Amino acid sequence: MDELTEFQKQQQRNVGGFMKGILVKRLESSFYAFKMSIDRFVQSHERFIEMFDKGTVYISKKVNVYDLLDQDNIDTLENLVDEDRVDKYMSDNFTKDYRTLVFQDLEILKSVKKLWIHIDEDPKLDSFLYEIKTKSTIKGQKIVVFTESKETGDYLFKKLFELYPGKVMFYSSKGALYENSKTLINHNIARELIKQNFDPKSESRRNTVSYNYRYISRRHKFTSIKRPHKLRFAMESYTGITKSGARKSARL
Question: How far is 80 from 74, CA to CA, in rounded Å?
Answer without folding.
Answer: 10
